[in-house]
Structure formats: structure tokens, C-alpha cells
Amino acid sequence: MKNIFFAFATLVFLSVSGLAKSQVTVHKMITAGYVYQNQSFGEIGGKLLFLKSDDVAFRLGASALMGSANSQFAIMPKVSADFMLNFEKNVDFYHSYYFVAGVEGTSKYIAPKVGFTLFGLLDVTGGYAFPIADARLNGKELKGLNINFTLNVPTTFIHDMFK
After folding, report:
1. Band of pLDDT at residue 14, cut at 50, 70 and 90
2. What is the structure's pLDDT at 86?
3. Which residues are CB-neighbours of 100 under 8 A, at least 6 positions away?
4. What are the strands, taking DSSP E only, across the chain?
């Protein structure tokens, strides 16, 4: 398990250090959404959007999943990493949507996911969750179909709204 963690940490470090060499713009976002993972959860958190060009963007996020599992309220931390891809050149309208490929992980499962996002604000993704060891949430196993609907609100939008 330590080797897997070390390999993942090294991969993240190399990815982020590669981004640091070029001119990358970072945008902060507040997120809220719905996650179905063999159980319904509400999600609230934040993301960082790393953007060098309009074609490829990278997001890192951290949030909390809140819901009821076996009639008991539960909160789980969640981290996510996404690549947003759109290779249409010189046409701004086509950059209203991006294809999303990524992974999310909690203390109970890891879920690769794919989907799309509209303007980077509304994400619709799906995937399959694999449980970590024999981890359960209030006795409920969290594996199988994973569906996410997420609203990403840039913090600059909130700042400008209250001016």
C-alpha cells in the first residue's frame, strides 16, 4: 500500500512540476453537486483549474460528500483530478464544452470517470468505483456505478457579484 501511495504522490508531483515550468493560469472555484455511489450524497468543496491553453485544462479538487448510509448520517472526504479536453482550433463556440477524464478517491473507494462539462461550470460524469480493501461506510459497501453532477462557480464571479 505504501508503494502505491508513493507512486501516486510521485506522479502528482511530476505532473504539477511540469505545469510550473510554463505560464499557467490558476482559477479557484467553489463546487456543489450530487454524487450517486450506491448511495446518494451531496457534495461541497473547491477546485483549482490549471489552464495554459483553451485546448487542455487540468483540475484538482477536494470536497466533502455528505449523506445517509444505512440510516446514519455520514461525511466522507473526496479528492479528484480531471483533464478537460477540446481540440477545436480558432472557434470559440466549440469551447463551450469539454470532454472530461479523471479520477476521484475517498477513504472508501477510487473511481475513474469520464463525461463532459459545459463552459467548465456544469459537469456530468460517470464511472465505476472500486472499493479500497474492505472499506465500508456505516456497513454499506460503496462499489459499482458512480454518477456525478457538479456545479463549479469561479470565485471571481462571486467577488464581482458583490462589488
Report:
1. low
2. 83
3. 82, 83, 84, 85, 113, 114, 115, 116, 117, 123, 125
4. 25-37, 40-51, 56-69, 72-85, 97-106, 109-118, 122-131, 136-137, 140-141, 144-154
pLDDT confidence bin for 1, thresholds 50/70/90: low
Contact between 109 and 128 (Cβ < 8 Å): no
Nearest-angstrom CA–CA distance, 76 and 152: 19
For residues 89 and 121, is the Cβ–Cβ distance under 8 A? no
The three cell numbers locating residue 141: 459497501
Number of neighbours of residue 87 by Cβ within 10 angstroms: 9
In the predicted model, is pLDDT for residue 108 greater than 80? yes
Give the torsion sign (CA, 34, 40, 42, 47).
Answer: negative
CB 40 within 8 A of CB 34: yes
Q: What is the pLDDT of residues 29-44, one digit of tens each?
A: 999 999 999 889 999 9
Q: What is this structure's pTM?
A: 0.77
Residue 57 CA to residue 162 CA, distance in Å, equals 28
Chain centroid, CA 156 distance in Å = 20
